[in-house]
Amino acid sequence: MDNFIIINAPFGARGHQLGRLLCSCDNVLWYDHFKNGSQPWLPSFGLGKTFSKYHFTRRFEGAYGLGTDEHTVPPVLERAAATGSEQRPVELLKDWANKVYPNKLVLVLHDHLNVTKSLFQNAKHIIIRPDNIDDVVARLDKVGADYRWGKNPIQTLREAYTKDNKTFEENIKLVIQETVASYDQASENDIVIESIDDIIDIDNFIKVCDKFDLTINYDNFNKVVDFVTKDKAKPLYEVRQLHNKDVPLIDTFLNKCCDLGFKNNTSLDTIKFDWCIKEGGSWWGVFKKNDLISMSGMHPFKDGYRVLFRGAQIEKRAVKGLNRYQFQSWGMWKELPMQIEWARWQGKDKIYITTNVSNDASGKMNRIHKAFSALHKAGVVDYLGDEEIFFTHQSVWRVNIQKYFEVRKIYEG
Question: Which of 228, 253, 288 is the last residue before a domain boundary?
């Protein structure tokens, strides 16, 4: 496993930013699953409120569902323990090392250095050893403490480390201090830095690449530097699943829809909020800061799921020029990929969208129907015919998932 690069960093020390910087090199693979951003200089997608846009998982394009598959590098050590997985999947790691060779893979780990070195004995190790731990705790409080972790997450990092009559800050500071202390065992073969800022300087980055045998791509390096400079970790727009606790925010959103004349989006009853969930579906919304600006549902339909159900937005997504793929719609851009993945978690890979043929409850549905005819010509959806659904004459379209993600990647960023 000598083509692994292990980033040893305590929680909150910008380890994933460093990972993105290393992945700008031509011979280091980027985890290009849509949630990570298709390139290392593009923000993570839909990971939830107060979670850093720099974070990324070990998933490549094509990965879906829970657990490890052929497109997912398995979690190890602390992360594996949190997800209930095997903590030292040596054979799987060797398989991945062989599969990507001669390219290299980056893993960001928060374990003690002796623990990571016992598993990755032949790997390259770069260590972030922050000088000011209070600053790291403060950053973690803003961008990572409310992340829900684990295979079936029921607890945030903040909740997990608020215990023994101590605050989250007190407990996590002790954890970080112990982790940093373990870095005393670094050897001359390791690279130790205080912060990612130390190697944003190109001369220092060249030294890292020389020591780790990395091929610099200067254009990509500059793009990542622009992305991580000033550490603006919190995303402006976020997408997440909506639950009953979000009803006050949904009510505010629906009141705005009512003011705009969206007749199918005036109340929880008109959008069939409870019905959708009882049928085995879910709801998804896009937030701008703390305001819900778009939402849509999904529910079982035929041999899969009907998505973008009762979709509405009160603010368009900014795009340059005309976009025949409807990416000015938050539903098409942010909600649809999350709904596709959620359906796949349920074991379903057939995704359907319906549009009204004649009944126009919002004044925009006929235009959307014509837009889907254009999407059909582009191969993003397949037209399956018209039928009566909930007493309304509608066209049924099946999403070509692979084509959708191919097109989406072109327009990302």
Answer: 228
